[in-house]
Design brief:
121 residues, alpha+beta, two-stranded antiparallel sheet, two-stranded antiparallel ribbon, 5 helices
């Protein structure tokens, strides 16, 4: 994992979610089909965002004829670990207890309709 990893802006994170959900290599056409058309992005916008992800070290790129292909350099799991750690550090002072206390409500936490009973020690 990169030591200098930084939080991605929402648009770049959305592109990375598409990258992680597909088998490499990824093309701008794949991004346009799964995200760009919905967002009403132009192809040049997607290309610019992809190149920014290359500059940030999240993707590497290869030129194959006229088409550029992209490969993830950072796994979804590594990025989510980074984001979660950053969130806990910034908002909860690295305290798991603080995080759980924020989620705690009447001795119950819910996850997809499943009730989880929390017992404080």
């Amino acid at each position: 994992m990169m030591k200098t990893m930084k939080k991605l802006p929402d648009a770049e994170f959305d592109i990375m979610k598409v990258v992680w959900a597909n088998n490499p290599p990824i093309t701008t056409n794949i991004i346009m089909q799964e995200l760009g058309n919905e967002r009403e992005w132009r192809a040049q916008t997607v290309i610019s965002l992809m190149l920014r992800l290359v500059e940030r070290g999240f993707l590497r790129t290869e030129k194959n004829g006229k088409e550029r292909t992209y490969f993830p350099l950072i796994s979804k799991e590594d990025y989510l670990k980074f984001e979660t750690g950053d969130f806990i550090e910034r908002y909860h002072g690295n305290s798991f207890t603080s995080l759980v206390a924020t989620l705690y409500d009447g001795n119950k936490l819910c996850h997809k309709g499943v009730e989880i009973i929390v017992h404080w020690c």
